[in-house]
Structures are given as C-alpha cells and as structure tokens.
Amino acid sequence: MSELLAGIGVVAAAGASAATILLPRGPLRVAAMLAALALFPVLVLGDQWNTTQIADLRDHTGRVVALLAVAVLAVAILAYLFRRWPRLLPLAIVFALPFRIPLHAGGDTANLLVPLYLVIAGGVTASALRVWGSGYAAGGAAGTTAGTARRAAVVWLPRVLAIAVVLYALQTLYSEDFSKGLQNVCFFLVPFTVAYGLIRDQEWDVPLLRWVLIVVAVGAVVFVGVGTVEYAAKELFWNDQVIRSNEFHTYFRVNSVFWDPNVYGRYLALVIVVATAALLWVRERRELAPLTVLIGVLWLGLAQTFSESSYIALLAGLAMLAAIRWSWRWTVVVAGLAVLLMVGVVAASGTFNLEKIFSGRAALVTGGLELFTERPVWGYGSGSFEQAYGDHRDNKDVPVSASHTEPVTVLAEQGVLGFAVYVALIAVALWAMAAGMWRGPPQGTGIGRAAVLAAFVALLVHTLSYAGFFEDPITWVLLAVGASLASRAQLLPDRGRGDAREARPAVRDPA
Q1: 440 in helix, strand or coil?
Q2: Residue 104: helix, strand or coil by DSSP?
Q3: Do the beta carbons of residue 54 and residue 100 sit within 8 Å?
C-alpha cells in the first residue's frame, strides 16, 4: 500500500468512526459504522502485508479461510442475538473488554482484542439490519436533550471525542512511526469509537446496571481464581518478560489471563471501585455480605499483582466515592493523610525497591518532555514515542514503547495541539459525569453515575503512571455510559438521584 493511500485511509477511517457518534440516528450513521469497520482490516493488512506474520498467513490459505469463516459465523450469531435482545449488546461488550487472543504467525505472537472486535461487528450488523430492514427514519442528533446546564457537557463530550480521534489520525501523516500510528488508529480508536456509539444509546436503567455489575464481578472472580493458581504454583501462562522478572524478584507477580500484571491490576481496581459504590448505597441487608466478600476476593487478587499504580488508582476511586457519599472536604484531608502513610510504608518496606521502580520511569518522563520541547506545537506524530525516543535521545538504554505517563506521551507525540484536546476531553467528561452529583444521596441510576465517575477517576490516575488512556476500551465504555446516564438524569426532577423508572431515557436509539 502506498503511503498516500494509507494516509487517506487512516483519515477516512477516523472520520467515519467520528461520524458514528456525531451523525443523527439512521441509515447514514449505520453506513459510517460499516465504513469504519471495513477500513480497519484493510488498512492493517495493507500496512503489514510484507511482514513475516502476514506472509505466513498468506502461505496458509486454508487457515485464513477457516478463520474468516469462524469470524463471519460468530458475527452472524451475535447480530441475531443483539437484534432479538438488544440489551445483550452492552453486556457482551463489557464481558469482552479484558480478553485478548494470542495469534501466532511468522514466529511472533500478537495479543488482539478479537472477542471485542467480533462483538462490535455483531452490534453494527444488528443495527444495520434493524435500520435498513424496517425503513427507520433518522432522528435528532444523538445524545442531545433539552433542559439543564448538564446538556452542554453531554453534547460536547462526543464532539471533543470525535476531534481527538480525527486529530490523532491527522498527526499520523507526519509521524516518525507511521505504521505504529496506523495500528493505534485501527486497533483502538476506530473500533472503540464505534463501541462508544453502540453503548451510549442504550437504555441504561437500574436492571441493566445490575447485570453489568454481575458480569464484571463474575469475570473478575474467575480472573482472581486463575491468578491465585499462578501464585500458588509460581508459574505464569504467558509473557516471558514477566516470567524472567519473577526469577530475580523476592516477590512473585501474577497476570492471570492478562498479558501485563499492571493491566490486570487496573481491571481489578476498577471492579473494586464499582462494587464499593454498590456497597455504599446498598438498599437491602442481604446484599451486604456478597458485596463485601466480592471486594475481599478482588483485593486478594490485586495484592498478588504487586502493581503500585493499581493500588494508587484504587485509592483515588475510593476517595471519589467517599467524597460523594460523605464530604469532599474531609475526603481531601483523609486521602492526603492516606497518601503520606502509604508512601511511608512503601518506602520503608524492603519488598518494594522504589529506586528501581521509578528510575526507568523517570528517564522516560524526562526524555518525553525533552521531545516535547523540541517540537512543542505539533509533536513527533501519533504513535512515534518509541521511534522518536530512540532517534533523538542520547540515553537509549531504557527499553521504551511509551512514556508510561499519558500526558507526557501526548505532549511528545501530539504537542500542544493534542494535549489541549486531551485535557478538554477529560474536563468535559468529568463535567458530564459529576454534574449534580452532590445535590443529595444518589438513588437508582444515580448510584451508577457515582460508580462510573469514581471508576473514571481511578483509570485517569492509573494512566498517569502506566499510560493506556485511549488504548484501553474501558475508557470508552466509561465515557459512553457516563454520557448516557448524564443525559438520562436531565429528565429526573432530582437531577439524577431518582430511580430510572421515574422517567423515560433521554435517548433511546434502536440503531
């Protein structure tokens, strides 16, 4: 594929995915979804056509045909299920979030979110069949409702998100690592934007939120079970780097079915935050015991990861819940004391070598900031951190794929332009999620809003030490659910604190 066609394709894919959250509901929106998903594999194949992985697949036609047949069958089954029972779609997306399938080709292994991609494709197919098969007429702009001041945040959230996606694609055109930027657009931004559109327009009520909690709780408990077996046997399923690292440490880190212990820890921390939100506002005493046991089990799994960034993220999420449940002033005081205590305990512990932990990160952060000062306005291009760090830094001994600090990565790759959009997206998201949250005790879907806000804060804090903001599908799910709940809350007289059954949803899009 020529660089010109590849560049046009990347921008077109990003534009089509952005249109899925901006266009009015109807056939054009579905067409944008289909175009985005169709360009995704074409661009990846075109970019990687001459690599050993794709060459190995080309030499085994039967294997390729079999994989395609399985994928088509899976998408057809999912489309049927989602068209018949639309509420299965958000549950399937949430269920598929953590699963990565290792694909072996050409002597190399790639861990891809294949289950999530199939679910998204099934959801888009179901939407296409529903819209084009029933003569559906286009409605108003998605996510808009009349009324409160929160409307501005709800309306601007998809707009800023679309700007972020398109800008990232445009900045791949001059990236020092165009291939990496293209892969980030195709593997993450395009499908996740489509997923955002599919999730946001669901009817998010109390029963659906309860089912989401059940799905993530059951999945997380299973992951902890796998991680506990790994911890007891002192053996991991995969990731040679972590396996070698465990051989030189006095402690043993587990990753369960995840590739990275920190990603596994992030997932557990977020589920603990959501479960704690349910526990803080539980209505029936019979729910206290299972929620408490669940949190204890998940904490056991989190402790086995030895992920300091996940511990801090969990603290941030719990602090946000405490601010909503009691007082934000006292929460600031207590959280500050807790941070000081935690730092003191960690520093005094012989298990944690802070110098070793942060020396590499510090070099990456300072190196990333140096890259930013060299090109402060537009950066080195999307996905270019690793390449630019190796080409323009004297200290090349630190292995690098990102700065491990999301703001630094954005500054180095996208400059002030990208950083301004990144900050604006976070500000608008927090505005939409938090508006009206301190006007009384949350009830019904208001508890869901509190859980989403706290989980989003925890994820933000985790990305400050491990990056992966736009590349994590959980980010997009939290943004979509938060926008949908905020939009729905505008119709409630107590501004989001009442039960979801008191009002119809602000947006109910069959597409």
Answers
A1: coil
A2: strand
A3: no
The C-alpha atoms of residue 330 and residue 137 are separated, in whole angstroms, by 51
Q: Which residue has the tokens 């008191």?
A: 502
How many Å separate Cα 376 from the centre of its chain? 27
Answer yes or no: are the C-beta atoms of 261 and 125 closer than 8 Å.
no
**3-state class (DSSP) for residue 101:** strand
pLDDT tens sequence for the chain (511 residues): 577 888 999 999 999 999 999 988 888 999 999 999 999 888 988 887 777 767 777 777 777 788 889 999 999 999 999 999 999 999 999 999 998 887 654 445 567 899 999 999 999 999 998 887 765 544 444 444 334 445 777 889 999 999 999 999 999 999 988 988 999 999 999 999 999 999 988 888 899 999 999 999 999 999 999 989 988 888 877 766 777 776 667 778 888 888 888 889 999 999 999 999 999 988 888 889 999 999 999 999 999 988 888 998 999 999 999 999 888 888 888 878 877 887 777 666 655 554 454 545 667 778 888 889 999 999 999 988 888 887 776 655 555 555 578 999 999 999 999 999 999 999 999 998 988 777 767 777 888 999 999 999 999 999 988 878 999 999 999 999 999 888 876 544 443 444 434 444 443 443 3
Phi, psi at 175, each rounded to 5°? -65, 145
User: Which tokens is 402 given?
Assistant: 């990102």
- Other Cβ atoms less than 10 A from the Cβ of 148: the count is 18
Spatial distance between the Cα atoms of 232 and 24, rounded to a whole number of angstroms: 53
Between CA 123 and CA 120 the distance in angstroms is: 5
Query: Do 487 and 143 form a contact (C-beta atoms < 8 A)?
Result: yes
Residue type, 232: A
Cα gap 275→503, rounded to integer Å = 25
Closest Cα to residue 446, out of 330, 321, 285? 321
- Which tokens is 144 given? 């808009």
Distances (CA, A) of 498 to 203, 213, 415, 437, 495: 16, 19, 43, 12, 8
Rounded to whole angstroms, the Cα distance separating 194 from 157 reads: 15
Structure tokens at 446: 């208001």
- Collect all residues with Cβ–Cβ distance below 8 Å to 75 and sequence separation of at least 6: 118, 121, 122, 125
Kindly report the pTM of this predicted structure: 0.86
- Asked if 379 contacts 412 with a C-beta cutoff of 8 angstroms, the reply is yes
Find out whether 20 and 33 touch, Cβ atoms under 8 Å. yes
Amino acid present at 508? R
Residue 13: partners with Cβ closer than 8 Å, 6 or more residues away: 35, 36, 39, 40, 43, 169, 185, 186, 190
